[in-house]
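Recall the central idea of this unit: under ordinary conditions, the amino acid sequence of a chain determines the structure it adopts. In this exercise we apply that idea directly, starting from the sequence alone.
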Amino acid sequence: MEINLEERKVVTDKSFEYIFSVWKFLGFYKDDSYSFLQKVHVAFIISCVNGITILSFIVQLFFVEDLKQLLNILPMNVTLVSCMVKFIIFLDKRRELIGIHHLIAKLDSRQLTSEEIESLENLNKFCKKIFFITFVLFEGMVHSAAVNAAFSHRQTLLFDVWMPYDYHNPASVYWATFIVQFGFFITMALENLTNDLSGPLYFIMLNRHLEIVLDRIARIGWDKGSRTQEENYQDFINCIEDHRTVLSIFDILQNTISHTLFVQFVTTGVLLSMEALLYLLYPPNPTELAIIVSYVLDITLEILPCCYYCNNFMAITDRTVTAIFSSNFMEQSLKFRKTAIIFMQMTQKSHVVVAGKVFPVTLATFMSVMKVAYSLLTVATRLR
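Accordingly, the structure predicted from this sequence is:
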């Protein structure tokens, strides 16, 4: 049953409400050009929040006493720098990302069945649940570090960093430093959340819109008697236009998210090497071993959502020809069949996101990363 969107509307953009709320807090605005205050806002986030935090970790490297302490501190340095670089990339590609939402609105404006509308609405809710779960995980880490520091009797802060003064005494200095560091790390956790979550959310909605387009193609011509060949041809042309819109969104994501994914892949490789070296040189006790294993799993699983949904997009695009053959094209007009042949020729190529034009973002790549992580720990165990 077809439903006129004037009677019932679906807004895919709702899936990104929370993401854009956080981005706005971080200085990422939807406006075409930034006002002076908006420029000051984003400059404060990058220079003060990111810059000062990273600087305090870098200076702390000069005060390490041994290699073990260096290997314990260095991963956080790499993670923080990676977080800032990814956020700057998103800021640089801001206009392209905003443009995606105009294209998504175009897809939403099509006449959809009640089942398709309901599936998009369910995905809106699913995306918001993913955001909430990820938010709890990311902010939970910062809050747990804050609780540990708060009960340390002013001995430690959330993270062991260099400070140009003695923050232990008096109490007012300690708590002022504690609050500032807590606020900075809350902000950076939100940065990391949007960096890692925006890609999967975009592809979740894009995959569903592509499936809807292919389902519409497969239904063409089977509604015999109620639609003429010319009407079926126009429906097919509309589907081709929507398919092109989906691929336009994919191209934008390829030119934006692929860069952040490249940074994440490189970061994952560096962090895995550090953990393997730490495990090799300094035999851990059971507690330290559990921390190392959980950390290795964490940094590898961080790239899983994007690999999974990008792999799904590739699989769905490969079903385009099947959708055309599923339509009743044999009973359509000559121009319909000619257009179908041309369209099939144009959709033979698989669409794969390539991180930094180096790594294909697929489940096969993710499994390769997992194998590397396992191999590094295995080699470290045998060498030790």
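Residues 116 and 172 are 58 Å apart (CA to CA).
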